[in-house]
Amino acid sequence: MRFGRFRFLKFVALALLAIAVLSAVVMLLWNWLVPALFAGAHAISFAQAVGLLVLSRILFGGFRGRPGWHRHGPGARWAALSDEERERLREGRCGARRQQT
Questions:
Q1: Model confidence at 80: pLDDT above 90
Q2: The predicted structure's pLDDT at residue 68
Q3: What is 80-93 written as a DSSP string?
Q4: pTM for this predicted structure
C-alpha cells in the first residue's frame, strides 16, 4: 500500500515539474519573440505562461497522452479491413508501382 502511495506522489511531482518546465519555456519564448514581432505586445509572467499553456491545451488538444490515443493509431483502419479489402489495396498499390517503372 505504501509503495502505491509513493508511486502516486512521484507521478504528481513529475507532472508538476513538467508543467513548470513547459510554462517556463512558453514564458521565455513569448518574452523573446512576441514583443519583438508585435509592437503593442508585452512580456508575460510565469502565471500568465501557465494560463497560456492551459489555454492552448484546451483549444488545440496537444501534449499527447489523450485517453484512447493508442486505439486510434495509424494501424486502426488497416485492422478494421477484411482480408478481401486488404488484398484489393495491396494489388492496387503494387499495380500502380509497376506501371510507373
A1: no
A2: 47
A3: HS-HHHHHHHHHHH
A4: 0.51
